UniProtKB/TrEMBL annotation:
<dbReference type="Pfam" id="PF00202">
    <property type="entry name" value="Aminotran_3"/>
</dbReference>
<keyword id="KW-0663">Pyridoxal phosphate</keyword>
<comment type="similarity">
    <text>Belongs to the class-III pyridoxal-phosphate-dependent aminotransferase family.</text>
</comment>
<dbReference type="InterPro" id="IPR004637">
    <property type="entry name" value="Dat"/>
</dbReference>
<comment type="pathway">
    <text>Amine and polyamine biosynthesis; ectoine biosynthesis; L-ectoine from L-aspartate 4-semialdehyde: step 1/3.</text>
</comment>
<dbReference type="InterPro" id="IPR005814">
    <property type="entry name" value="Aminotrans_3"/>
</dbReference>
<keyword id="KW-0032">Aminotransferase</keyword>
<dbReference type="InterPro" id="IPR015422">
    <property type="entry name" value="PyrdxlP-dep_Trfase_small"/>
</dbReference>
<dbReference type="InterPro" id="IPR015424">
    <property type="entry name" value="PyrdxlP-dep_Trfase"/>
</dbReference>
<dbReference type="InterPro" id="IPR049704">
    <property type="entry name" value="Aminotrans_3_PPA_site"/>
</dbReference>
<protein>
    <recommendedName>
        <fullName>Diaminobutyrate--2-oxoglutarate transaminase</fullName>
        <ecNumber>2.6.1.76</ecNumber>
    </recommendedName>
</protein>
<keyword id="KW-0808">Transferase</keyword>
<dbReference type="InterPro" id="IPR015421">
    <property type="entry name" value="PyrdxlP-dep_Trfase_major"/>
</dbReference>
Amino acid sequence: AQEGILRRQSARESSARTYARALPIVPVRARGLTIEGADGRRYLDCLSGAGTLALGHNHPVVLEAIRKVLDSGAPLHVLDLATPVKDAFTTELFRTLPPGLADRARVQFCGPAGTDAVEAAFKLVRAATGRTGMLAFTGAYHGMTAGALEASGGACEVRVTRLPYPQDYRCPYGVGGEHGAELAARWTESVLDDAKSGVPLPAGMILEPVQGEGGVIPAPDGWLRRMREITATRSIPLIADEVQTGVGRTGRFWAVEHSGVVPDVMVLSKAIGGSLPLAVVVYRDDLDVWQPGAHAGTFRGNQLAMAAGTATLAHVRENGLAERAEMLGSRMLTQLGPLIGEFACVGDVRGRGLMIGIEMVDPEAPPAVADGPRPAAPDLATAVQRECLRRGLIVELGGRHAGVVRLLPPLTITDEQTNAVLDRLTDAIEAVAR
Ligand code: PMP
């Protein structure tokens, strides 16, 4: 059955299919970290629906919440009308919000994907400020619709100015750390304040506290605080895109909490729907300038996603899963770190909480600058992914140069499973390095 399904789907689906190209498996059952293929093989899934599955596959509290709605006779689709299910979701969501936003928050349900919420956030700050431009960062990923795509490096009508995102490993200033981040912050300041060639005052700034698709690059807390200060002093709303970093993944419920920064707007999706599609923009009440009908969309009220999301948010909060993510993440980084010295093809190991990235580099190619990193090696990253799959481990790829192997395991991963993931991954890297 597996071969037939793979053959038919690859003939019928668009050639853009991405995950299915690299991962020729046909999942038929899943629970927690484990996926079972139609051929009976079992895999440890560290792709987690691109970071969606905070509680892993088919967690009992999520299934129970969905069943409860189904069995209650509640409507499954009522556009954005108020329902008890929505009321419970909003209550739980507001309970988790960072202090400073929680008591003054408004929510706009968007639908159904992260990219929709990014578009809505752009619209909101444009309406609130009466300005048009957006500031975004190198290496960013905000989605695949027009405006969000532009902020991710695409081409469309939204005028986006891209500024340097701080990075340790490939720091454009060659210094990294807090110092490199401060230089990046000064660049942003100088662009904004350049009276002759700077950008006009923009409607907003959007950033990821940890870049995910960009290659798992955590922004230093100091840089985030500088961005808060730079935007606050110029009345530019700061939009934190926590689509991937939210719901405990980085070791805090929301990743901005590491730095204490309170954004004006937060874009949330993925894990907030507990495996089902759900996306919202949360923002401070004084930005709520929208007129009735200013933002619409048929699928802004997925009742099942709200119920699954309520159960997920509550489970993460009540069981301290963010703290667990922080603990397991630092254990994984400690164990994987030495691979840098061991294998010339491992350039960097980094992450925050259970967002982990391993950057593969070409050991033969000379660094672009003396003592700098070697060029990224997308072929080696792909080879590691393939070797992982052979060993029953599903990992994700990413990074500006597609050279980063990424792990996004569920926050419910056990100690034993963590060891199994580390063993298989290390084995796979060793196989590629040989
Ligand atoms: N923002 C971030 C930070 C993301 O990681 C993603 C998806 N990977 C998106 C936005 C877009 O979300 P979606 O794919 O649901 O449109």
